[in-house]
Amino acid sequence: MQVRIFCSMFFGAIALFPPTVHVMAAEERVYLSKAEIESVLIDRGIESRNLSTGMVSHWIFRPDGRVEFTNKSGPGSASGTWVIRTDGLMCVTMLTRTGCRYWFRQGGTLANALGKEPDSPLVAEIAFE
Fold this sequence. Notes:
By secondary structure, this protein is of the alpha+beta class. The chain contains two helices and nine strands; from the N terminus they run H-E-H-E-E-E-E-E-E-E-E. The chain has helices spanning 2-16, 34-41; strands at 30-31, 45-50, 56-61, 66-71, 77-84, 89-94, 97-106, 109-113, 122-128. A hairpin with an 8-residue loop joins strand 8 and strand 9. It starts with a helix and ends with a strand.
């Protein structure tokens, strides 16, 4: 009986104080230059996990400035164009909407954010397929 009560209290405490899993917050962001983005991302399939929506998508940035997108979390695909500004800001235009992100490494993770400030909101974590 006491073992059952102890286990119940122990697992209840773990639920209240889960272990910290976000190692990324402790390490500094290293933003990619235009040349680094071109060598790392162009013509490679990448999987992007949007941290606010949970959506997982597949992207391919082509050397000629085209981009292909497929939603892996549900139906949907699109194509458009991409451009990288000299400061490393990559902008993608699909249909009539343009979205821009800065790419960076943090620890062993590749990700993107809205700005270059240390507290700029993280948008997505990236993995190569």
